[in-house]
Amino acid sequence: xxxxxxxxxxxxxxxxxxxxxxxxxxxxxxxxxxxxxxxxxxxxxxxxxxxxxxxxxxxxxxxxxxxxxxxxxxxxxxxxxxxxxxxxxxxxxxxxxxxxxxxxxxxxxxxxxxxxxxxxxx
Length: 122
Prior knowledge:
Oligomer: single chain
Strand order of the largest sheet: 1-2
Order of helices and strands: EEHHHH
Helix content: 40-55%
Structural class: alpha+beta
Number of helices: 4
Distance between the termini: 42 Å
């Protein structure tokens, strides 16, 4: 399963302080199928059950797999928000220097945003 990692970092240059939020994802997967050896047993509203059952069907998976994947994904995201990532001074300086570089213009995006929106504004 992928592992989300988030951090907040602050750099002070010549009396100016800048704070950056950083979010990375480690995409290391364990290819072995893991045995389920724990049980979750809880009651839900009929409407919630129907909604989850429909979503699982749309995803082509079981309700158990859908609920487990959704809960684990959310749990990882929440935990990642509270786990700091430590960078050396050199790594952090290199990272902030990259953030401070002038933005690159992507002509395709400029053209896209110049078009009239197809979404009604009313």
